[in-house]
Amino acid sequence: MPQPGAPPLVPGQTRVMDPGAAAAPLTRPADPDLSPPLRPPAHQVSPVAVRWWQLRSLLLLAVLLVPQVAGALVFGFPVAGWLVATIAATAAVVGAWAVLVPPLLFRIHRWEVTDEAVYTLSGWLVREWRIAPISRVQTVDTAHGPLQQALGLASVTVTTASARGPVKIAGLAAADATELARMLTETTQATPGDAT
Amino acid sequence: MSEIADAASGAAQEAGSTPPAADETPWRRLDRRMLVVGPFSLLVRVVPVVVVLLLSGQGDPIRVWIAAGAAVAAVVAGVLRWRTTRYRITPERVELHSGWLNRQRRSVPRDRIRTVDLTAKLLHRVFGLSVVRVSAATAGVQAGGGLSLDAVSKAEAERLRRELLEHSPATADRTDDSAAGAPPTQELARLRWAWLRYAPLTFSSIAGMGAIAATAFNLLDDLGLDPRDIRAVDDTAARLAAAPVLIAVAVVALALLALLVVGALLLFAERWYAYRLTREPDGTLRVRRGLLTRRSLSVAERRLRGAEVVEPVLLRLGRGAQARAVSTGLAGDPQGGALQPPAPRAESHRVASAALRVPPEQITQASLRRHPRAALTRRVVRAVGPALVLAAAAFGVGDLLDLGWLGPLALALVPVAALLGWDRYRSLGHQLTGGFLVARSGSLVRRTVALQRGGVIGWTFRQTLFQRRAGLVSLEAVTAAGRGGYTVLDLGARDAVDLADATVPDLLTAFRAPLPAAAGAEHPPGDLPAQRAGRRAQERLHHG
Predict the structure, then answer these.
(1) What is this structure's pTM?
(2) Which ipTM value was assigned to this complex?
(3) Least CB-CB distance to B512: which of A38, A162, A167?
């Protein structure tokens, strides 16, 4: 069994795949009795992911604001008081989210691939630890959204035979994602059976 | 998208793919009788429209022509469908080509076939036909994970069922342990008419009644009939309107209830007449049932990953339940893989145990471990919270609209909600037995699921903000079968990890947090709760 002290790399891999691995370790949850006694996965996602999440929040902000501002323009001046209030509230809430939450997400999101399993940790309000055995992996997909492409990022989705099983690692550096997907594919092809 | 182009490219493909697919397996057509049944079943569907057209038009020639056109179109469509549909079963795959303008090719690898479902509606039965639906597990579980042959002769359907389930390559290894001459068909359960008493207690039959009533109403409406035109109905309505409100309401409610009960009984009879659960010599579980529409669902036993005993609240109050199979490839089954009609609870556990060949105490009737008190708090808060919000809103609305009774009425929901929360907590439980992970939850629909430990293909630990405060974790066992994941709700954080670790040995061990130094050696998985409690107390001592 790999030791937690020396986090196992991706099988067959000699270099540390992500720059985040050298970053500060995740602060331990305050009370070990309250959160599941699992150690955090070894690797962090790319630090650029923070920018990605922020851009996404800004897009959301735009989507929410445009109709409201358009409404304000259509109804003309003086703009109704409640509309000003909702515009201000939207800007404040989503703006604050865009500034504050992505760095938090970066500290939480982690992943690891061992010879036996894919292991991820994600989520801020609802935290999710996901474990999928390598022997049950069916497909490995890499996806680059337009924003991700612009930032040189990619996501890897590992699908098992279950409808509820996909394990997603979002915000990896594109090269790392490709490499990870290639290796996972190789490993799973070597595993016999239909993985159900 | 031009359909013609599609057809052309389809034809090109076909021409191109003939040489490699020069399999000697010949293509087969659907049964000839579909030339009659196909147009007929299409016509039956347009009958109401045609009737309306003819009745309302009073011999208007255009309407007659439209009706005749519809009939001709139905016949042509039926013939075309029969002409263009071909299927074959090669040693590796089941292939189905169909469609004329919109050509479709379906191909299912035989080792992915999970269930074979034979259905014969009334019309099909009259002509001795049966629809064969093959469902398969494919990567990603898309909607198209199967195909259906509509329809082949009864004998051919039976032959296909046996061939597809028996000779799928993966069976080869299994046949030798059930060898010693194929065992005869073994009957595991059959219908008892006493179970009719559970029919009115199932929600699905109530919903079914609603659907039928809606259809009937639509039909009346289509035919331009107003129920009030019928004198008896009109008289009754007038008398009810004249009667005191309470009595009128009571009469209507009673009438509806009677209708529901009768309808539920009829539906039960239609669905479950001649129900038999058998274990076939080829290693499949087979459910046969139906009065007008005959159905036969076959589940390959080696695809079975567990069983579930479901108790909707009314059924539970009547001490009834229903056992379902947890199997891969059943996701599209409208009955959710039901192995039996609603039946006495003990019978459900017995059927589940017979299907899995494991004593009930090892699966759905295992004695379950309670969940921590914090889970009770969470259940009650989650039930009462929305009720309180609703009550507050009701008071507000009542104030606005001057409906003084609205608020207090909504407030009466709060104790009901609290009771519900308490019951949901009482339902919670889990246990790890020899071969199965057993979990129970739910109040309005209580589900006890027993999942084969070998069927677990992943874990998800989930903690919301509130669960983090309370030290609770929802543990989802991911599986290829049934709903895809089964959640053990609100476990203690440490218990969740212990449970997952013990269920699938070694998978999790590498990811466990190193124990605090005081606790010493490696944490033995699946130890007794008492031991664990003791050790935790010890740890606290060392910490403090």
Answers:
(1) 0.75
(2) 0.82
(3) A38
